[in-house]
């Protein structure tokens, strides 16, 4: 990914109250970082929306970049037991092959795909019970463990420290 060459990062992840529930937004490469989606979930997001411009090597379900795209979407959904709405452009632009696969993933179970466009242009649409499905997921996931409630942020403090193994801003500890 070369996004850092063209775009400037934001400095927070916001959650908005809407008629259908609390919606959090992250953008494209943010999906590669568990902390982004978790930040939205602990702020109360019930739906995470993630528009992307994800490039592929080839238009194939076996494409390595598409596999990453899929893994990130499902992982962020299941880790946080929320709905995940992903959108991507499709087709080819100049020499770039686009992922497509706009989708709605539900929080219940590991692969709760509610709607998808595949490689084609279109809209992913599904009728869902946002609060009901999230409650069900949070009461039944991982053998009745609540992945949000049972987290232990006090054990993750190393994530925010700069060390020789954690290259935040390309700095290292002396």
Descriptive key words:
single chain, 174 residues, alpha+beta, Nitrilase/N-carbamoyl-D-aminoacid amidohydrolase, 6-stranded mixed β-sheet, 3-stranded antiparallel β-sheet, 3 helices, 9 strands, 24% helix, 20% strand, globular, Aliph_Amidase/BUP
What can be said about this structure in brief?
The protein is α+β, with helices and mostly antiparallel strands and 174 residues long. It contains three helices and nine strands.
Can you put this structure into words, describing what you see?
It holds the Pfam family CN_hydrolase. The protein is an alpha+beta fold. The chain has a single domain (3-170), classed as Nitrilase/N-carbamoyl-D-aminoacid amidohydrolase, CATH 3.60.110.10. Helices cover 24% and strands 20% of the residues. The chain contains three helices and nine strands; from the N terminus they run ββαββαβββββα. α1 (34-42) packs parallel to α2 (64-80). The chain is globular and about 45 Å long.
Q: SSE layout and pairings?
A:
Layout: E1 15-18, E2 21-25, H1 34-42, E3 47-52, E4 55-56, H2 64-80, E5 83-88, E6 92-93, E7 96-98, E8 103-105, E9 113-116, H3 130-144
Parallel strand pairs: 2-3, 3-5
Antiparallel strand pairs: 1-2, 4-7, 5-8, 6-7, 8-9
Strand order of the largest sheet: 1-2-3-5-8-9
- As a percent range, the share of strand residues is 15-25%
CATH architectural category? 4-Layer Sandwich
What do we call the CATH homologous superfamily?
Carbon-nitrogen hydrolase
Number of domains: 1
Basic shape: globular
Number of E-state strands: 9
Number of distinct helices: 3
Structural class: alpha+beta
The major sheet is characterized as: 6 strands, mixed
Low-confidence stretches: none
N-to-C series of helices and strands? EEHEEHEEEEEH
Overall average pLDDT: 88
The CATH first-level class comes to Alpha Beta
Q: What is the multimeric organization of the chains shown?
A: single chain
Q: How far apart are the first and last residues' alpha carbons, in Å?
A: 29 Å
């Amino acid at each position: 990914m070369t996004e850092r060459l063209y775009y400037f990062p934001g400095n927070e992840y916001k959650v908005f109250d809407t008629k259908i529930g609390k919606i959090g937004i992250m953008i494209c490469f943010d999906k590669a970082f568990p902390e982004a989606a978790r930040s939205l979930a602990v702020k109360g997001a019930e739906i995470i929306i993630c528009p992307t411009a994800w490039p592929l090597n080839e238009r194939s379900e076996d494409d390595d970049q598409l596999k990453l795209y899929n893994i990130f979407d499902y992982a962020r959904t299941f880790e946080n037991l929320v709905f995940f709405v992903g959108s991507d452009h499709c087709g080819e632009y100049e020499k770039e092959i686009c992922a497509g696969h706009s989708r709605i993933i539900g929080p219940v179970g590991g692969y709760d795909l509610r709607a998808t466009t595949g490689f084609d242009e279109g809209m992913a649409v599904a009728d869902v019970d946002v609060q009901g499905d999230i409650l069900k997921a949070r009461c039944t996931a991982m053998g009745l463990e609540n992945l949000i409630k049972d987290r232990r942020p006090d054990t993750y403090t190393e994530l925010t420290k700069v060390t020789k193994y954690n290259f935040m801003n390309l700095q290292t500890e002396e």
